[in-house]
Amino acid sequence: MVKEVEKWWNDAAPWFQEWAKLSTKSADYGPYAPRENQLKLLGDVKGKKILEIGCGGAQCSISFAKQGAICTAIDISKAQLAYARKLIEREKVSVTLIKGDIQTLKGIKSSSYDIVFSAFALQYIADLTKCFKEVYRVLKKGGLFVFSYDHPLYYVIDPKTKKIRYNYLKTRKLVQNETWSDRTKHKFVMFHRKVSDIVNSVINANLTLLEVHEPLDMKNKIKDPTVYPEDLVRLIGPTIIFKAKKK
Ligand SMILES: C[S@@+](CC[C@H](N)C(=O)[O-])C[C@H]1O[C@@H](n2cnc3c(N)ncnc32)[C@H](O)[C@@H]1O
Predict the structure, then answer these.
(1) 187, part of any domain
(2) In this structure, what CATH number is given to the domain that contains residue 68?
């Protein structure tokens, strides 16, 4: 399963980075969501140890490092990490990059991070609860876990026809979403979960859920009407954000 995801992201990395055009000024939670400098879910990160899981081009970690955080960022895709490495060099900051599967967090010491952060990456992993138990393990007591996710309702609607295309109530693996099929030669894999599945994974990992946000900021655009037509975006909002704590 991880191999399928890895292959797709290795192939997709160059066009994804060109398509998403993510800023390194403030962490981007996802399409049409306010950035961290508006939401302020992490608080002051100066001197904080932050682990970013599913970092892609590491733009979020770079923004935290610019504010004085000590950052480690993990991704499964060597192509995404290669992009991240160049960007870190260009931005003249320090971020430790690790290639690995975020479902295991192998090699990361227990109780060693103040914050675990993830933007728009957890919809690609098969076992969310396993990942969240690992997040719990590596967080210090009182540490925060802030993550964003494709809003599970957004993918239920076909962006072209605006009709319902998937059963929201059926948790499952989605393969070859037609929107992406022409972009790489590999199959696109993501996991559809209900909001309750995500919340229950947080609870089952012994983390305490503090906040859930379903924000909309029409200014933080991805200009691609095949995936994000603005009339649909306005009605659902493609990004959901969770904040939890290790008590
Ligand atoms: C949509 S990108 C998000 C990246 C970044 N946070 C951003 O906002 O651009 C999803 C990332 O998750 C990574 N990913 C997916 N499954 C993973 C896994 N099991 N372990 C580590 N990284 C994974 C992919 O390689 C990809 O870079």
Answers:
(1) no
(2) 3.40.50.150
Distance in Å, CA 67 to ligand 1 centroid: 23
* Total residues belonging to the chain: 247
> Phi and psi (nearest 5°) for 132?
-70, -30
Q: Whose Cα sits closest to atom 18 in ligand 1?
A: 101
Question: Rounded to the nearest whole angstrom, what is the distance from the C-alpha of residue 201 to the centroid of ligand 1?
Answer: 19
Any atom of ligand 1 within 6 Å of the Cβ of 101: yes
Question: CA 26, 28, 33, 36: dihedral to nearest 10 degrees?
Answer: -40
Looking at the 3D structure of the chain, how many domains does it have?
1
pLDDT of residue 179: 54
The model's pLDDT over 52-64, given as tens digits with 9 standing for 90+, comes to 999 999 999 999 9
The domain in which residue 229 lies consists of 2-151+195-245
